[in-house]
């Protein structure tokens, strides 16, 4: 389909990898569950040698991801963390320095603090929403700004174009954005100037809690080749069956995202007017301090929100427990509505002082709004309010 670049993303995710060459004409791209490929004669292959290097089903998923990223190519990995690890091993060497968003996925913090730091890679956390602070934190050795926006779980936004301009004012400094919360269909980081867009495909791209996976996309073809080499060297490529499941997920991504955003907007408004709710973080609300930036760099407001009740932490946790439809589980971006308490889950490794400064209070509740009817979700909240507070 690369001869039809004029298609819209919602068409491309369905048709970018239609194959007509299979023996049966099956409408779905087949799962090439194979380790190796036959040489037609010694040294002659159809471009595939061994599935640690490349695999046709993984390649088909990569075409779908490239279609939504607007890049020539994308690479898929066994997990979001495998994607970030491969990126760092491909780009960095001992003595290099990285700037990380101070509110960032816990696994990314762990990777730098407990793994990459042991190999002489230096890093600093910075509030990437504060552009002058980012500019001031750059050192001669800084090679990468790795930012996440919206931040989890406060949804604080960083200006992607502003960060790209700062990075590109320096030689050899690239901007990578973890765009897992919005996907390129809502926030196209490459178009906004980022050098690398990273996704945990585990979340919205798969959307069904069926797989773990990750992806990287860039316009820099030299970096793509380097990433391929490192992925092959360390063995972080996506597995064919997981890629196949993810291909099915991404076909409905545009439709699912529209519903996630609509439902989250409705629930955010409902929660905000509720007397038991102290505060709601959702970029689509007029009360959200950075709504203008959301409107500038996003085409919608996403499916994630967080809120605090007018209640103690203990009561807030009981309220979560009383919910029946909202499922208490880590992860996000799936058809099921998932609810977490970041202070005891994703952000439990942070000190209480840092959590307080970042706005991650002990009672903060994070919601990944799923595709259930908002009417039923609101009824679930009403029942939980009734059970815990009697109203
Ligand atoms: C889940 C997640 C990751 C890590 O992805 P895995 O697929 O779990 O390895 C990275 N960044 C963000 C924002 C995530 O939500």
TrEMBL record:
GO terms assigned for molecular function: carbon-sulfur lyase activity; pyridoxal phosphate binding
Gene Ontology BP term (one): transsulfuration
CDD domains, sorted: CGS_like
Class of the enzyme per the UniProt entry, highest EC level: lyase
InterPro entries, sorted: Cys/Met-Metab_PyrdxlP-dep_enz, Cys_met_metab_PP, PyrdxlP-dep_Trfase, PyrdxlP-dep_Trfase_major, PyrdxlP-dep_Trfase_small
Protein name per UniProt: Cystathionine gamma-lyase
EC numbers, comma separated: 4.4.1.1
Superkingdom classification of source: Bacteria
Cofactor(s) named in the record: pyridoxal 5'-phosphate
SUPFAM superfamilies per the UniProt record, alphabetical: PLP-dependent transferases (SSF53383)
Residues with PTM N6-(pyridoxal phosphate)lysine: 203
Key words of the record: Lyase, Pyridoxal phosphate
Gene Ontology cellular-component annotations: cytoplasm
Family: Belongs to the trans-sulfuration enzymes family.
Pfam families: Cys_Met_Meta_PP (PF01053)
